[in-house]
Specification:
The mean pLDDT is 90. The two termini are 15 Å apart. The protein has a domain at 23-62. It has two helices and no strands. The protein is elongated and about 50 Å long. The protein is mostly helical. Helix 1 (3-36) packs antiparallel against helix 2 (43-61).
Length: 72
């Protein structure tokens, strides 16, 4: 397999792991929030902080932040 393809697969795998970790943490935070103080959804702050990180990671995984002419 070509090295470029391997790098692309590794980037996508890293993104999938990031998304899985975010979902697991958010599910736990929602459960803790529901058990402790359901009237104030503080887990939304966590979601809003994590979304730009996931968006940036998605852009990196797609190769949008490489040098011009370099998609690796």
């Amino acid at each position: 397999m070509r090295p470029e393809r391997m790098r692309e697969m590794e980037r996508r795998r890293g993104l999938r792991l990031h998304l899985i970790a975010a979902m697991c943490v958010l599910l736990v935070a929602i459960a803790v929030n529901a058990a402790t103080n359901p009237r104030y959804p503080w887990w939304l702050w966590l979601l809003m902080a994590w979304m730009p990180l996931i968006a940036g990671h998605t852009g990196w995984a797609m190769g949008l932040f490489g040098r011009k002419g370099d998609r690796s």
